[in-house]
Amino acid sequence: MNLPIIYLWSLCGIAAYLVGSLPFGFLLARTKGVDIRRLGSGNIGATNVFRTVSKPLGLLAFLLDFAKGLCGVLLLPWLTGQLLGQPELAGSRALALFGGIMTVVGHNWTCFLGFKGGKGVATSAGMLLALTPPAVGVGLALWLVTFFTTRYVSLASIAAAISLGIAVWPLYYAKEGLWFPAILTLLAILTIWKHRSNIVRLYLGTESRFSFKKRKL
Asked: Whole-model pTM above 0.85?
């Protein structure tokens, strides 16, 4: 029996938030006996794990956080639709976008760590790759250029967010209307806002550059 669509959206949103809340960076750092929140920038994301704990674990944290965004778009809407007997509604682009956004929200404000989380870059990248590969290509290109020019991960992430927030308009406004690029632009603004402390440090000249040299705990 089909249930009201609000149940589908609610279940998908809750499941996506919980998946997004899984603090993989924190958990991987704990395997080394450390609390990532007390190291480096204090962020639980992949970059801090890569810098302060282990490069392989940092890469794994990125891949797992990236997979959360993919899961929110591609898997959870389908699963909740099957569970509630509404597979035709589960295929909507709006629900996929909602599921992806909720994984980012979960990552940024995880319920497992007192609602303090990461900055959502990897999870947003996974979500956006599933929704808008061309815009991700633009963002990735600018990320690589900025990173290898400056070696600032934060500046590269901010530049990628800005470029993606702009690129979605010519790519999707004519096809999707206002709502789709507008929401993705708001997500890009959220990413920039989560980097506000980095922006201050960049302005003051105190932001750490990325180094590929091994660091000791």
From this structure: yes
